[in-house]
Amino acid sequence: MLSSENRLRRREDFATAMRRGRRAGRPHLVVHLRDGTDPHVAEETPPPPRAGFVVSKAIGNAVVRHRVQRRLRHLVRARLAALPAGSLVVVRALPGAESVASEQLARELDAALERLLGGVRG
């Protein structure tokens, strides 16, 4: 379970990450990242990174969708420390994600985050 401060809940936050952020696609998921650098906001302590998940009905019924979301949430929770402070991350599951092993999803998530974070840093 992600802590309350690390969860995306508002539609506007999802839209910001998906429309204004960068994205990296993989065979079973797409990761959207909006880094937390905003020159117009002067905060002393930046907020923690926040993550949200999109698992559509194309994945399967409610039981299957929730299982995929739990697996993704577990994988993202382990990687929150590597994300920049104030960043917004949306992980969108694609059809076929329900039948892939967690290790494969972890590799795809790592590859997507590496691509996105490499572009932010460099």
Distance between the termini: 31 Å
User: What would you call the structural class?
Assistant: alpha+beta
Which fold does the CATH topology refer to? Ribosomal Protein S5, domain 2
Query: Biggest sheet, in brief?
Result: 4 strands, mixed
Tell me the series of helices and strands, N- to C-terminal: HEEEHEH
- Strand fraction band? 15-25%
- Give the radius of gyration: 14 Å
Mean pLDDT, nearest integer? 90
CATH architecture: 2-Layer Sandwich
Oligomer: single chain
Total helices: the number is 3
What's the level 1 CATH class?
Answer: Alpha Beta
Domains, number: 1
Number of distinct beta strands: 4
Strands side by side in the biggest sheet: 1-2-4-3
Low-confidence stretches: none
State the helical fraction: 25-40%
3D shape: globular
Characteristics:
122 residues, alpha+beta, Ribosomal Protein S5, domain 2, 3 helices
Question: Could you explain how this protein is built, in words?
Answer:
The chain has 122 residues and is an alpha+beta fold. It has one domain (4-35, 47-116): 2-Layer Sandwich (Ribosomal Protein S5, domain 2), CATH 3.30.230. 38% of the residues lie in helices and 17% in strands. The chain has helices at residues 11-20, 62-77, 102-121; strands at residues 22-25, 29-34, 50-54, 88-93. The chain has a 4-stranded mixed sheet with strand order 1-2-4-3, with helices on both faces. β3, α2 and β4 form a beta-alpha-beta unit. The longest helix has 20 residues, at 102-121. It is globular. 26% of the residues are buried.
